[in-house]
Design a protein that fits this description.
single chain; Rossmann fold; 5 strands; globular
């Protein structure tokens, strides 16, 4: 399953994502991962959540990031949930160019039963059509 929180900067997407991650971790018997591009949110998350600052790794672009996620899941089959804050900042690509990324992510979520929760900055009127099926 993929859930996307989409909207303009400053509308509280990160706060919602952190709350959802903490709630998910309380209810999950598996592992939960939170990915961001800085350490700013590290202490807002419950101890059970594995925090990853993706800026510490040489991941550039959506293809490399999808590979990063595949590697993470192949290493730990107990991952139930992955939370990604600011996807377009992490991959440094425009939302409309992420259709293939979401196609691959959908396959990954289905095959390994992982729930992905992602925040993306953008104007609702300019939201790409392929993204609408994932809006939470």
């Amino acid at each position: 399953m993929i859930n996307v929180i989409y909207g303009k900067k400053g509308m509280g997407k990160t706060k919602i994502l952190v709350e959802n991650a903490n709630n998910f971790a309380e209810q999950s018997s598996g592992d939960v991962v939170f990915i961001d591009d800085s350490n700013q949110l590290m202490y807002d998350l419950k101890r059970k959540i594995r925090f990853i600052n993706v800026a510490d790794f040489p991941v550039e672009g959506s293809t490399a990031f999808l590979g990063f996620l595949c590697g993470m899941i192949s290493q730990d089959y107990d991952i139930d949930g992955v939370f990604i804050d600011g996807l377009t900042y992490i991959v440094k690509e425009r939302t409309e160019n992420l259709k293939e990324f979401f196609t691959g992510l959908k396959k990954l979520a289905s095959k390994y039963n992982v729930t992905f929760n992602i925040s993306i900055n953008g104007d609702n009127e300019e939201m790409p059509e392929f993204l609408k099926e994932f809006i939470a």
